[in-house]
Design brief:
The complex is a heterodimer of chains A (381) and B (243). In chain A, 13% of the residues lie in helices and 34% in strands. Chain A is mainly beta and 381 residues long. Chain A has three domains: 159 residues, no CATH class; 118 residues, Cyclophilin, CATH 2.40.100; 55 residues, no CATH class. The C terminus of chain A is likely disordered. The model of chain B has no long low-confidence stretch (mean pLDDT 92). With 243 residues, chain B is α+β, with helices and mostly antiparallel strands. In chain B, the strands form three sheets. Chain B has an eight-stranded mixed β-sheet with strand order 12-9-10-7-6-13-5-14. A four-stranded antiparallel β-sheet of chain B has the order 1-2-4-3, covered by helices on one side. Chain B contains five helices and 14 strands. The chains are: A mainly beta (381), B alpha+beta (243). Chains A and B meet through strand 17, strand 21, helix 4, strand 25 and strand 26 of A and strand 2, helix 1, strand 3, strand 4 and helix 2 of B.
Chain lengths: 381, 243
Amino acid sequence: MTKSVIKIISPGLLSTIQDLGRYGFQHLGIPESGAMDKFALRVGNSLLGNPENRAAIEITGIGPSLIFLENIEIAITGANLSPKINGSAIPQWQNILISKNDHLTFEDAIDGFRSYICIKGGIDCPNVLGSKSTFLKGQFGGIEGRSLKENDIILANADRNNILHSKKLPPEYTNPIYGNHHILRIILGPQNNHFTDNALSTLVESQYKITLESDRVGYRLEGPELEHIDKPDILSDGSPPGAIQIPGNGQPTILMADRGTTGGYAKIGTIISTDISQIAQASPGQIITFQIVNQEEASALRQAQEQIFIDLDNNYPITKSNKQNLLHITDNKSKLSASTKKGLPLTSNTQQPQSSQKLFRTTVTSKKTTYTFDLDVNEIE
Amino acid sequence: MNIEPLITNAGDQAITINFGDTIDTQVSSFVFEISESLRGFQLDGILDIIPSYCSIMIQYDPLVITSSYIHTICKELCSQIKSNYQSKKSRIISIPVLYEKEYASDIEFVSSHTGLSTDEIIKIHTTHIYTIFMIGFTPGFPYMGISPNKLTVPRKTTPSKRILAGSIGLAENQTGIYPIESAGGWQIIGNTPINFFDISLSNPSLFNIGDQVKFEALNNIEEYDSIKKLSKNNKYKPTIKNV
């Protein structure tokens, strides 16, 4: 069951429908796609009690103008693009009850670049190879494989009223501030051995500027050249999310959600999963610096970022009995003053992942052959 | 097989297994075998497995599976498959191609670069059996090799902004087919009327890595048009021979 929930009045700079991505088809050249800032989308869905993978509207830089066609609960996460309901500012990273005919607009881009309009139940549109994500270049997914336009009607899944329990962030969480200078943590490789020592030190000691040639496929940067030992070309291989590839001109490109599945330039390093959210919020003209971390640090950082989902799940359900915690825009405008606190990033205390030393044996079967493995989870590094 | 895999992390959501840096049908077949075995395991947390000429990229969800677990599995899998590896059976798919000038914008360049006449180019291209080494670039684009040396041509210095769907191109010792209209830098020598990629199917691609391809020259535009019409209605079945 679906119901029409939104009518687009004007689409803004670039608004597309995205879920967490399209997996299992990259070997056929079909890219991952999905939300550029998957963390923001996951938080938005979690607040609404949706499964994390539900589709939302990803908006970019200049937000859309739209009308709600019925009473519904929403949450806007990611960039602060000054969302307003009927002209009054509304908070982000929390649930808001919208009334039929409410008008959502956006004004200045205060901080960040991509924002997610998440809806109770999630947006409904046809699945293409298991995902609702729009892949613009391939012209599939979302609504007719394109960005949203005037008069589009957005549908939502109708399981939104009773089954899905809304949640609230614990008070120690405050909205993230993305800023203009992005420090991105990377793991070297997979082809860092194709670069001179000088290139590796230049990479971490320099500032790179984001050029206008940046989109959902990747960010082209401009800064000190990174020198290959030999030639820039490799035999094409798979492109990981967040890979920093260096073509012949020595200028880095960061590969993002709609990247080609394979590429022929050496990749000096790869942005860790925790920081993909940060780069997804960067816009042309802003500055990037890189910091090298190792696999264990990356893993610990990711675990820490995940704490928010544990806290959302365990501690702060909004049930029918405390539904008054929900901000209701139309009835209760006075609560708006208590909106965004600024300061801390949207994570709680770092928790080191538990290390496990145990060796275990496993068997797996593929094409009628059974393989046995002794696995020591700490074997590598 | 005498190749030691080099397994490296590619960030904290992917690892790469590399088997050297040559285009070689035996290496490619080994790469494919390992990829498909791994795919067959259906391990939780493995999101994508991308085989290419001589490497495999595995994308995973670090919250579900660890890189060290995948490292270990891949290392073992490589050594277990290597010890009793035989090149697997393949199939040859016939692809009809119209090599008429109208659809072969660069055949004159290829001719002047290689010193071959148009007829000789067509003859070599239709006699040689190509292997699909990987699929990438745009959805469904098959990278095929290995062209005989005399048919080796460079990419265009300035890529074309618009290459028709179905265009057959040459680049270095590879040949490929553009599934959708796109920009591209390969030298175009013909066009196939068949639809080999359809996003609405659960298996959208006619081609698989490891398949072999034989190009068959069409005689005229009428043949091309009639196949195109059939293919558009999903009524054209290309000839597939198991070998």
